[in-house]
Amino acid sequence: MPKRKKIDPSVLINYRLAPDMFPLSKQVQIATDMVKGCAARLAGLEIPRYEDNESTFADLQARISKTIAFIQDVTPEQINGTENLAINFKIGGTEKSFIGLPYLLDFVLPNFYFHITMTYAILRHNGVELGKSDFLGVD
Question: Is 75 buried (19+), middle (13-18) or exposed (0-12) by CB count in 10 A?
Answer without folding.
Answer: exposed
